[in-house]
Amino acid sequence: MKAIFIYNPESGSGRIKRNISYIKKKLESKYSLVDIYESKSKEDLIKKASMTSDYDALIFSGGDGTFNDIITGIGKLAKKPVLGYLPSGTANDIGKNLNISKNYKKALKIILNGNVTEHDVGLINNDHYFMYVVASGTFSSVSYRTKRETKKSLGKLAYLLDGLKDLFNPEVVDFKLKINNQEWEYRVPLVLILNSKSVGGIKFNYRGHRNDGYFDILIFKKGKGKNKGLVNIFGGFLSGIFQRKLKRRNVISLRANELILEASDNITWCIDGEEGIKGTITIKNLHKHIQIYTPKN
Fold first, then answer.
1. What does the domain layout of the chain look like in residue ranges?
2. Torsion-angle region of 229 (φ positive above 0: left; ψ -120 to 50: alpha; else: beta)
3. What's the per-residue H, E or C state across the chain?
4. φ, ψ (nearest 5 deg) of residue 244
5. Which of 76, 228, 248, 253 has the greatest CB tally within 10 Å of its CB?
6. What is the rounded CA–CA span in Å between residue 38 and residue 115?
7. Where does 2-114 sit in CATH, by number?
8. Which of 176, 201, 202 is CA-nearest to residue 264?
């Protein structure tokens, strides 16, 4: 079997790059051929991933943004390699959702053990892919607003400090939601379309679903007064921290495998933690679209 290992040299403070020899040696115990590729940019990473149909496995390292680039690259391939993931970003929400350790040695063991899971992927406007979240509103832009240098020096604390800006100036999102033949209009502080349990390192959707062909849609209510729904957002976060069911007074919860979000062009959608497209979007669930090595159970 053949494998390729692609890594983002900017992710994980260079830890993966320093241990390339160890990683290659371990992979060679499973694969007869292991190629190594250091990505040069986001565009380069996507292009290289799109050329991996001849490999049995595509192993890669990086954060949530890198994961999104990988599925964007392989998304339209007729023959997709099985994915192996070594999380090395700051938040690593996707790694948490998959129960893959940030310790690269432990993550390698998962790949070597060979347990494969089929995983749903989201498709936006028939062109953009996502693995775990599409969001807009208060706190949704923190992950891509925060400077890379700050994340390297402060880690998750960098997100917290940047998020304080939204406490003093919370956003409100206007959009129309269409599911099948029904539609609703909303003016809310935050909307999330999820294929995950964890967002921002918090499992506030811990009762959520994955890989059943549907998305969880969480719409946080605006509430009353000047806080613009911040109380409801924090109520959702606390429900996740203490693993309690989300309260209806805080959030509207829906499910769908296909939906349309009609919004003006000044609305930016956060896609897997990265700045995404603006305006109206159509989202479809691609059931069991990729295969990835995950822990058993």
1. 2-114, 130-287
2. left
3. CEEEEEECCCHHHHHHHHCHHHHHHHHHCCCCEEEEEECCCHHHHHHHHCCCCCCCEEEEEECHHHHHHHHHHHCCCCCCCEEEEEECCCCCHHHHHCCCCCCHHHHHHHHHHCCEEEEEEEEECCCEEECCEEEEECCCCHHHHCCHHHHHHHCHHHHHHHHHHHHHCCCCEEEEEEECCEEEEEEECEEEEECCCCECCECCCCCCCCCCCCEEEEEECCCCCCCCCHHHHHHHHHHHHCCCCCCCCCEEEEEECEEEEECCCCCEEEECCEEEEECCEEEEEEEEEEEEECCCC
4. -115, 155
5. 228
6. 26
7. 3.40.50.10330
8. 176
CATH class of the domain at 130-287: mainly beta
Which token pair is 267?
């609305």
Q: How many CB atoms lie within 10 A of CB 153?
A: 11
Instruction: Establish whether domains 2-114 and 130-287 are of one fold.
Output: no
**Which residues does 195 contact at the CB level (< 8 Å), separation at least 6?**
120, 121, 122, 130, 131, 132, 133, 210, 211, 215, 216, 285
pLDDT tens per residue across all 297 residues of the chain = 999 999 988 766 678 888 999 999 999 999 999 999 999 999 999 999 999 999 999 999 998 889 999 999 999 999 999 999 999 877 788 998 899 999 999 999 999 999 999 999 999 999 999 999 999 987 676 664 455 554 454 455 444 544 445 555 667 899 999 999 999 999 998 999 999 877 776 666 766 667 899 999 999 888 766 566 777 776 767 666 556 667 777 789 899 999 999 999 999 999 998 889 999 999 999 999 999 999 987
Global pTM reads 0.86
